[in-house]
Structures are given as structure tokens and as C-alpha cells.
Amino acid sequence: MLRVNPFLPSFSMFNKIPFSLLYRSSFRRTLRPFVTCRCNLFAKPVSVSNVNANFFAVDKTRNLSAVATAKKSGLNASNSSTNEMSNKEKKKAKRESPEFLLKIKLDNCSKHGKLEEALGLYDKIISNGVSLTQHHYNMLLYLCAREASGDGGQLDELKELGLKRGFEIFQKMVGDKVSPNEATFTSMARLAVAREDPDMAFELVKQMKDLGILPRLRSYGPALLGFCEKGNAEKAYEVDAHMHESGVMTEEPELLALLKVSIETKNTDKVYEMLHRLRATVRQVSESTLQVVEDWFKSEDAANVGSEKWDVKQIKEAVVGGGGGWHGLGWLGSGRWRAVRTTMTKTGVCHSCGEKLVCIDIDPKETENFAAKLAELACSKEARADFVRFQEWLQRHGPFDAVVDGANVALINSENFNLNQLKKVVNQLQQMSPSKRYPLVILHQSRVARDRNNSAWLEKWKKAGVLYATPYGSNDDWYWLYAAVSCKCLVVTNDEMRDHLFQLLGNSFFPRWKEKHQVRLSATRTGLVLNMPPPYSIVIQESESGSWHVPSIADDDLSNPRQWLCASRSKKTP
């Protein structure tokens, strides 16, 4: 007798796939993993030949939008009565519709991780014959995948429930001719990995492009991490290559998984590659990644890899060509590594091995491109005329040696806006300037207008062309950041630049720029102290002698020195 997996949908789903998807062989391949058995023990086996051939004889110009078009056409009959309703009545009817009420309740279940409640709502609404939208299905699939993958931290019963109902709901979605999107595929990939089938997850994400859906990092995550957990390094590398072809950048969790599986399979070349990819994209690593790297350097496999002789000239040329701080020509040296946690001096000298870290230069062209991108983003988020006016003002009065985030400095260690504190910092920067020029102070217009006690000071700065008051309704972050980037100067602020605004700037250039240009302040009994940017780059560095220095992520407390992993060998002679 054929055994049935209760978590898999029946082959009958093929009879319900939207015509717009059926002609695509890629979508049929996508669904194939789900259809490995029959759910009805008493039904006759279904073969591909039983499927009506006309299902596949469709116009290939049709696409996913055909489903939506068909649904809209069904509403034409009621257009005349709907037009007679007022806008207020339409909005009220929409708010009171079963579909809208279900959306609100499912969103709440998703927010609080209530799978059982969501499934109860789903069963009730289906029994009442209400049609579900893509959003409804995606919320349900997300909750099922969340529990099935263990992210909800719930009991095994809920994991099994999420796994079983997730595939059932997806079958219903296909039967209702609701087109899937990236969120749908991502949830199904998570469900596949929860069933310990990363191959299915990878197959799903590979077919997204064929359906005109661009995969994201979260789409690849289940397959990549699933293969890594199973120790299948080759398949993990295949997923990684597919991500690269799709223009999807890996982040620390994915690189850590690839590093682990490379270590487990003793692929030392891949370990070397992953360390360099961490250097290029992550720069400073979390404690979990640092521990894996430390364990690697202390292992026998690490001791047995490396060149005893190398071309010094070639290494130096590679370091210069890469901008400094790495050469990328493979492991150097032989014998066991000495891997220890340590700190750096203020000048960047390692307290463990005595090597001096380098300051990696930034290409001036990169800075110009970044300034242009920053201006474009600012104009899209701010009133364009206001920001263009600031750019013109900056051209007349700049460049500056430093830009001060006035509000941030005035509020450090103070509940109220402390202009005297800001004045002291401004004066200190003026004394430090080679040209003895005042820095540019950016303050919001509301701060300038309400501070009547210091109006004389503010007016003096304005007349000197060193104070710019950003207009009402603006975000002054855009202004002080753009000024610092375009003037190629220091920016004085304790803003860690981690919110949504700064995330728009990406993780490629901006962290490197911030590291070399941000001046932070610390509060002491005598006032604020300026902490200048370090004279070395806080990034994974590979020296010409083969040593490695890996920085950890530091907290915002400047009094706590950053922890580094120093990995060096005694045998370094080329």
C-alpha cells in the first residue's frame, strides 16, 4: 500500500493552477517537489497523462497579471451600482468587508505570532466562501513557516501544525488562482527546509526569475543555511554562486554558515575565501563569528596549511594594488598559529604581535559618487528646493575643515539644549583647524528661533557663514552628512547613523567613510572630549607576513577598548 505524507498537497493542485502559470515549464518544475504522492488512499493514481492537454495549450503572452485581470472583469456587472455609492460609503463598506476585517486580524496574529488563532480565522472564512487575497495567503504562510522552522520557539506540536497546514494553504492558494510573489516563495522555501529538504527550497528560488520575481537575500537563506546545516558544502557553494549571479549580496549570517561548512569539510581554500569576503563586506564581526575564526586558527587543519616560501615583491604589489591591508594570495607561513584576543594602541600597534595596522585609503572618485548619491536621496526625501538652496549656500561658503551636528552635540549628557556646550566644541575645533577657521554648524531652524538667550552668538555665526539653519519640516541629518561628504572633512556627532535614513546609503562605502571621518565626543568632569578617528582602519587585515587581525563589533562606550583577534605564526620567513 502506498504510504502518504500528510504534509504534502495532492496532485490535484495541477488542475487548479492559473492558466497564466501553467504554460511555464519552470513553474511546473517548481511545483513538482510538492507532488510526490497522493493524499487520497482510495483514489486511483494520477499520472501526467490524465491532465487535460488543453491546460498547457495556452497563449504564451499571458502572464501573472492575467489572474488579476480576470477577477476585475467579473466586477463590471456591478460597476453601475457601485458608482452610485459615495466615496464615504465605499470606504465604510471596504472597512466592514470580511476580507478587510480578516486582513486586520491576520496582521495582528502575524505581529504576535499567533498561528492557531490565524488558522481558526482561515478555516472560518473559507467555510463562509470568502475569497482570500495574496496578502491573506502570505500572512498565513509566513506564520506557518515561522512555527515550522522553530523561529516561534513553540512546542513541537505547533511546528508540526505549521508544516502540515502550510502546504495545505499553499495548495488552496494555487487552486484559487492567486499569483504568488517573493514573500510566497520565501515562506515555502522555509517550509521546505523545515521538512529537511533544502533541494526543494533551492528549486523554488531558482524558478522565481522565470516567473519575473526577483529573489532577495531572505529567499536564498533557507536553502543556503539548510545545505550548510546538513554539511553539504558543494550545494551550499552552488546556492552562493546563484546568489552572486542574481546580484544578491551575502551578509554575516550567510558568510558564517559558509565558513563553518568549509571548516567542517576541511576546504582550506574556501576558508581563506570566506575570511576575505568577511573583510570586504562585514569588516567587523560579531562574537559568534570571531569565536569560529579563533577556533579555526587554533586547529590542526590551520596549522597544516600555508606556503613556507613566497615572493615578497609579488605580495607587496598585491597589497598596494588592493588598497592596503590585504594581499589575497593565500595562507603564508607554516606551523601552528598563535591566536589570542588583544587590543590595539592608539596608533594601531597590536599589543600581541607588535605589527602596526594600516589605514586603507578611500578612492576620491568613490567619495564624489557617494556625495552625488547622497544629494539625490536627500532631494527625494526632503523638499527639493530647500536642499538645492543648501547646496548653493555650501558652494558659496565652503569648504570647511569640520561639520558639527549642532543638536546632537548640544544634547550630549544634557537633558536640555546646551548651547554653551556646543560653543566650547566649536571653539576647540576652530583652534585645531590648520586655517583657524570655524567649523560649519548645522542646526534646525526651530532651535535657532527659540533660543533667544543666545541669539547674539547665533547671529554672529550666521554672519560669519558658519551656521546653517535647516528649514522647518526638514531632517537635519541629510544636511550635516552631505556637507561633511562634499567638503571631504570631519563630522562631529555621536549619532551612530544606524536608523533607516543611513541604511539607505548601503554597506559598501558608507561604513568606510564614517570610520575615517566621524569625530565622537565623550563626557568628562571638565567637559566634552573630542575622540578623533583612528589612524588605522578597523577592518579585518591580512599582513604581508601572513598574520591576521580580526576586529569585533564594539559597543558605543568609547571607554571600552575594541577586542581584536590576532593570529600570527613564528615561522614567517619567505
Automatic annotation (TrEMBL):
<dbReference type="InterPro" id="IPR002885">
    <property type="entry name" value="PPR_rpt"/>
</dbReference>
<keyword id="KW-0378">Hydrolase</keyword>
<keyword id="KW-0819">tRNA processing</keyword>
<dbReference type="Pfam" id="PF16953">
    <property type="entry name" value="PRORP"/>
</dbReference>
<feature type="compositionally biased region" description="Polar residues">
    <location>
        <begin position="75"/>
        <end position="85"/>
    </location>
</feature>
<keyword id="KW-0809">Transit peptide</keyword>
<comment type="similarity">
    <text>Belongs to the PPR family. P subfamily.</text>
</comment>
<keyword id="KW-0677">Repeat</keyword>
<keyword id="KW-0479">Metal-binding</keyword>
<dbReference type="InterPro" id="IPR031595">
    <property type="entry name" value="PRORP_C"/>
</dbReference>
<dbReference type="InterPro" id="IPR033443">
    <property type="entry name" value="PROP1-like_PPR_dom"/>
</dbReference>
<keyword id="KW-0862">Zinc</keyword>
<feature type="region of interest" description="Disordered">
    <location>
        <begin position="75"/>
        <end position="96"/>
    </location>
</feature>
<dbReference type="InterPro" id="IPR011990">
    <property type="entry name" value="TPR-like_helical_dom_sf"/>
</dbReference>
<feature type="repeat" description="PPR">
    <location>
        <begin position="181"/>
        <end position="215"/>
    </location>
</feature>
<feature type="domain" description="PROP1-like PPR">
    <location>
        <begin position="90"/>
        <end position="303"/>
    </location>
</feature>
<keyword id="KW-0496">Mitochondrion</keyword>
<keyword id="KW-0460">Magnesium</keyword>
<keyword id="KW-0540">Nuclease</keyword>
<dbReference type="Pfam" id="PF17177">
    <property type="entry name" value="PPR_long"/>
</dbReference>
<feature type="domain" description="PRORP">
    <location>
        <begin position="344"/>
        <end position="566"/>
    </location>
</feature>
<protein>
    <recommendedName>
        <fullName>ribonuclease P</fullName>
        <ecNumber>3.1.26.5</ecNumber>
    </recommendedName>
</protein>
